[in-house]
Amino acid sequence: MNVYDVLKERGFIEAVTDEDGVRGYLEAPGAHCYIGFDPTARSLHIGSLVPIMSLVHMQRAGHHPIALVGGGTGLIGDPSGKTEMRKVLSREEIEANAHGLRAQLASYLEFNEGRALLLNNAQWLSALNYIDFLRDIGRHFSVNRMLAAESYRMRLETGLNFVEFNYMLLQAYDFLQLYRDYRCALQMGGNDQWGNIVAGVDLIRRVEGAAVYGMVFPLLTTATGEKMGKTAKGTVWLDAELTAPYEYYQYWINTDDRDVERFLALFTFLPMDEVRRYGRLKGADLRAAKEVLALEATTITHGSQSARRAQEAARGAFGGGQGSLEAIPTTLMPRTVFRKGVAAFELFCETALCSSRGDARRLIEHGGAYVNGERLNAFDEVITEAHLMDNALTLRAGKKRYHRVIVQDKD
Fold this sequence. Notes:
This protein is of the alpha/beta class. The protein has helices at residues 3-10, 19-25, 49-60, 91-105, 122-125, 130-136, 143-148, 150-153, 162-165, 167-182, 194-208, 245-253, 260-267, 272-279, 286-302, 304-318, 335-340, 344-350, 357-365, and strands spanning 15-16, 32-37, 64-69, 117-120, 186-190, 213-217, 230-231, 234-235, 330-334, 342-343, 369-371, 374-375, 382-383, 392-397, 401-408.
């Protein structure tokens, strides 16, 4: 099956520049395709999973994906999808973030023996001569057409600076460079990248006289209209140090019933007939499908061992005590804290189950806070050694957010 049809069936594709051309390009194994990832943070997040999974599907089909880390474009900042200018990062911050992204992408794609390429556009962008760039590349761009692009048009009211205005040219130049070096003829990205991708397609046509293609993915929101990867605690990162595998697993297990089939298609490699079978489940039976989604998605990002531990922890927390709680986020605290006693609202704030003391007070006053399964009745209830069970406490905020406190005898 042509990987284009695989991606289309699984819900990845929103638009392409030339459907017949893309399908033909991907007909035989060995095609090169690329996606850019600007290093604006030390880790990618769940919102980056659709592009990452598309590259993995390409590799599984025998093609050669290119993951392009934007060490050069990251210094400029992509205005696409933003109502204001991105924070300008230093070269040192960009390089540190780029290093983290390279390691992270290697957990999804196999880069050995040329099966995939991991490149940094700083290699060619940093060496550009500005006058030569304007003469050779800039002359092919129409300012009128650039201003008509959605990414620029939406910024005209709030302000678009000249540095950001250059971003489209630089991304188009990336495509040209990859075409020249690897005959890469397909760029993919989120739907906010459509204008940038089309600019690259047009540049290569003008400069090289070649036909290349673009493909964009839909901007994913949940059934409730929320942006993918946002929770009460903030962004869900792919880095285990920023979002623990247990919390990552919990994000997927808490998927809205209406999203289960769609997310199984996008974020797992299960055959589509199996995905559709899970999608037909209703009510309590749908819990099994959510467990499959959570286990598969966590395995892909964090490995099978971490995924199994997260599953056991979830079953221990929600399944009547069956399973290990070890993977639940944990805070170590000295015993002296509980000898003296600590107010419940302070404890919930200290463990980051609540964002502030005020938030913790409101949670407790509304009956949403528990210690060892017992609901707290007062925000300032004192938690002491008497509450400890095997030198530990289990805290719960609402129905689904757990945290363990383990007491250390060393003060």
